[in-house]
Amino acid sequence: MKAFYGDLKLGILGGGQLGRMLIQQAINYNVTVKVLDPDREAPCRKLCDEFVVGSLGDYETVYNFGKKVDLLTIEIEKVNVDALEQLEKEGVMVYPQPRIIRLIQDKGTQKQFFKENNIPTAEFQVISSAKQLKESHIPFPYIQKLRKDGYDGRGVYKVIDESYLDKAFTEPSLIERWIDFEKEIGIIVARNESGAVKTFPLVEMEFNPQANLVEFLISPSTLPFEIQQDAAQIAVKIAEDLKIVGLLAVEMFLDKHGKILVNELAPRPHNSGHQSIEGNVVSQFEQHLRAIFNQPLGDTACLNNAIMVNVLGEAGYEGPAVYEGIEKVLKCPGVYVHLYGKALTKPFRKMGHVTIVDADREKAIEKARFVQATLKVIS
Asked: May I ask the CATH class of domain 305-379?
């Protein structure tokens, strides 16, 4: 195998902020990076060694891109898996493996995987028609999710009672029993080709109710040790059952009875791990690179209390991005601003994130709330 730190060319499918932060870490290892993305103004465009504009869903585009790299990874799951499988057959290393991307692309098969492998998850039913939806055995209220293409809160619909069925999705979907949860939690786990596995400490998340995406994250968790241990064991089991190579984000619910239920998986760096850049010995991005290059996995211990705040485009604004309040935020000690290089803002678009670190957990949370109230993306 070529040395990862010079003569091995890494390809990334997707040129968004996850790819951008992955490149920032790859630079430290002298990794040559080539990126494919349909947006010629994607956040990665100025950081990578070579940027290619093209569709992630087109077989020929993905195949031809992959033939020119030694190892291929993703920063988004919505890619042409047929092309990845062919590349894998022809000797290109593809991590995470195409079979895992295919499984996770479909929330229905993802849930079936949980069921078949005794992974705790909410009761669910796979739906292929509006008629089936109306005849479901799962009681109201429940959550309906499109089996494919849902992302960052899109493709999710809460059905409170029968009157909501008229606006329900008609495409293939699944429905899940509504969970009266105490907290939304997450663990990122990494596995390399040699089979070494390591988890990051559990984090607690708050979701934006309108956009249905993470906007506030606290690390490390203060939940009881037993709960944190159980969550880590579940994450490790999933990674080992899948035999994934790379990073896996495991989103979970902690219900009112202290039971952990797995919600969804993401086989890549994830929004729930951004705080690791400043808050942990090794970041999720470095860990992903270590895993896919089959290097020793890094120490995931927390260095400090770390709070991550997503910087979202403000409602009512669309156009060239203006970061209002950034000077006030930068005056705060222990505040780290990450802007994603997106020229245009729109409501709830992820424009950046801010990590706040402090030895005092309450002070970190207080500063994070200040950041939330002060830093606004307008136009």
From this structure: alpha beta
